[in-house]
Amino acid sequence: MERAVFSQRFRDASAVARDFARRYIEEPLPAPLLFRLRLNASFDGNPLHEDERVFPEDSDRQLARRLSRCTAEEVVDVLWRDAMVPEWVNLSVICDAGTATLVEVLACGRFTANDGLLYHQREGRAPFHVLGPSLPAGFEQGQKFSIYHRSACMNRDEFSLVAPNAAMVWSLELSGEDFDDEMIASLPAFPRLHVLHHATIERRRNETSIGVVEIKSNRHESIEKSTSIE
Questions:
Q1: Quick check: 184 and 163 in contact, CB under 8 A?
Q2: Residue 14 · residue 91 · CB < 8 Å
Q3: For residues 208 and 172, what is the distance between their CA atoms, to the nearest angstrom?
Q4: Whether the predicted pLDDT of 178 surpasses 80
Q5: What residues form DSSP beta bridges with 52?
Q6: What contacts 170, CB < 8 A, 6 or more positions away?
Q7: What contacts 82, CB < 8 A, 6 or more positions away?
Q8: What are the residue boundaries of the structural domains of the chain, listed by start?
Q9: Residues in Cβ contact with 199 at an 8 Å cutoff, skipping those fewer than 6 apart
Q10: How many angstroms separate the CA atoms of 217 and 68, rounded?
């Protein structure tokens, strides 16, 4: 795939993801976009097609941290590799980053230059697929909910945006070196928190001073689901 085609499809799909999320999120989402790029988001243990290639080094944790806040051009720089692109890329809004809307970019670990192997052809922007934000349990059509309902923070700056909205948070994921024992011990109260993801907390498997109602180590145990554009 030509880089210009891939770049335009990515930018178009990203704008659709933001606008689609606005149908469900009660807070106004900023027009500018930033991205959290997650590579190797697929199971690639099966035999590869002759036109497929994988990059195990993409799973490096330091790389993941560097890609936690990217511009559109930076995302394209990483995903377009000499005409090879991921076979599928899912886009969904995950938070308000203050001056921009943060879109999560989940990229398949299998890269190919064969357009016939790309997913989501019928959507007209292959390999991109737009998903809406995860819906709260008991969601009813037409209902809006807070962008902070499910919050994920990779550093203190991101947490500083979530903390003033603690009453809206149902699920909280903390990752990165900023969230050490001292930081965890000083967290404010989250009165509606049901699910907490953090390595230190999950090791202890007990209640903390934040008032966690229930701690689950596997995010897929949540009964929430996502909307999608077909």
A1: no
A2: yes
A3: 14
A4: yes
A5: 112
A6: 136, 149, 150, 192, 193, 194, 195
A7: 113
A8: 3-133, 150-227
A9: 175
A10: 22
Q: Rounded to whole angstroms, how far apart are CA atoms 92 and 104?
A: 5
Residues 8-59 pLDDT 10s: 999 999 999 999 999 999 999 999 999 999 999 999 999 999 999 999 999 9
pLDDT band at 221 (very low <50, low <70, confident <90, very high): very low
Q: Are 208 and 179 contacting, i.e. CB atoms less than 8 angstroms apart?
A: no
Whether pLDDT at 206 is above 80: no
Q: What is the pLDDT, as a whole number, of residue 44?
A: 93
Integer Cα distance of 109 and 133 in angstroms:
23
Strand pairing class (128-135; 89-96): parallel
Q: Which is more confidently placed, 25 or 198?
A: 25
Residue reference for tokens 């554009």: 229
Q: Alpha carbon of 123 to those of 12, 38, 127, 132, 229: distances in Å?
A: 12, 22, 9, 15, 8
Beta-carbon count within 10 A of 109 CB = 19
pTM of the prediction? 0.85
